[in-house]
Amino acid sequence: MPRKPRISGAGGSAGSGSNKTPAAPTAPPKKFTKGKNSSTNGKKFLIYGESGRGKSSLSILAPTPILIPLDDGTSDLLDPYTGEEIDEVKNVTTFEDTRLALHQADLFKDNETVIIDTVIKLEDLSHEYMFKTIPHEKGGTVHSIEGYGYGKGYRHLYDTMKLFLTDVDALVRTGKNVILIAQCATRMVPNAAGEDYLCFCPRLYQGSKGTPPVEELYREWADFVLFIDHVSQTVKDKKASGDTTRAVFTDGEMHFKAKSRVLPNGKNVPPVVNFADVADDSIFRFIFPEGDDDAPDKSTVSEPPE
After folding, report:
1. Are 214 and 205 in contact (CB under 8 A)?
2. How many separate domains does the chain show?
3. Is residue 141 part of a domain?
4. pTM for the complete prediction?
5. What's the CA gap between 241 and 6, in Å, rounded?
6. 182 inside domain
7. pLDDT tens digit string along 194-213?
8. Which residues span the domain enclosing 100?
């Protein structure tokens, strides 16, 4: 029996192989440049606290704000200095709407700060987005987060909420500040050095065995995690008492999560900043000190809660 000719390469011919498919050209190596560390990115905030603490009121004190109102809590907010209504993006009702709005650059051309109120509502809306875009691994539409199977829906939730942060980061790179508002929750924190303890944190999905926490993802994303609470409050015999003056906490304690980055001028934001008055923008005067030389100094620092 005659021997079959040998085939040389994909699409090649028998024999000498002179008609082999040529190799793809090699892409030129990426060129890098160097320069000074002078970022023009905006700043990223996560502001949280219990209902009625003034989260939205504080947020609109940031430089030239515009709201994406997913909740109704900001419908009657007015600028405390001018009495005028706050700019807002209209008709945003879904997770998809929110993502699309963030990519519509002309919406924000006259504003420095974009506020999403609230990311708790956004997380709720993300479920419907998941059901529309992520089928069950065996095919078919899912109608509840548990419908994906044990823990799998919450992994999809984490990935979906991470998508939103990529949209936000694209906006931050254009120089816009972004504030995410969240309600407050408590979580039990594992403590390797002793007993576990309760801690205040933003009310986002906190994870469980095998599923990552959205709450932690969003705290890590933020440059500033600001917790609004009373300055001094104690609980004795199951009764709360103490000063009800509000403050903004920028440095976490064991019983609440908060953080702030070192400012470009090398200074640190005080761990506790006064917010007794809803028109007190002291926290933003610390974070955005530029051009504030002629403004009245309202900044006061309070003692942290016990």
Report:
1. yes
2. 1
3. yes
4. 0.82
5. 89
6. yes
7. 899 899 999 999 998 788 99
8. 44-245
